[in-house]
Amino acid sequence: MATPEDRKLVGRAREGDADAFEELVRLHTPQLYRLLARMLGSASAAEDVAQECFIRAWRALPSFRGEARFSTWLYRIAINEGNRYLARESRRELLPFDDVLRDVPDLGAQTAELAEVGELRERLERLLAELPAHYRVAVVLRDVEGYSNEEAAELLELDVRNFKSRLHRGRMAIRHRLEELAEGD
After folding, report:
1. CB atoms within 10 A of CB 175
2. All domains of the chain in start order, with CATH
3. Which end of the chain is less enclosed by CB atoms within 10 A, N or C?
């Protein structure tokens, strides 16, 4: 369910109120940026793609029917733009996730909780960065962003069964690599 604030701002923005849209951008940038940074493995790419997302959202806002939450609609645009970016990049260089996370704005308690996990967190972030993009985005949406299977499937325009399969395969790939690393220690 959309927040009352989002509904008001979206209504004003659909009528051409650029200030209302700027407020929506301000409210949703941290989560969108975090998703894109993890999906793309690059802070600078995440910034570029986030800007493109908001441009596309502004242009498409008149067609937003409000059947889904604004954030869901915006995340769908972000995932599509992220996939377009990855498709355009014939050979992309992944930054170490420490570098990416250093550029991610402080997102409050969740970031503090993740920081406490220390070395395991760093390993998980690196392993997440190694996953193929379609598995990575599934794991990020479900396990990092906390979307339900149904919500994440909707964002990716998949049926729930296909989403669960991607999520499972992504999780298993991370688990397998963790086990390999544990054996090597």
Report:
1. 11
2. 4-184 (1.10.1740.10)
3. C
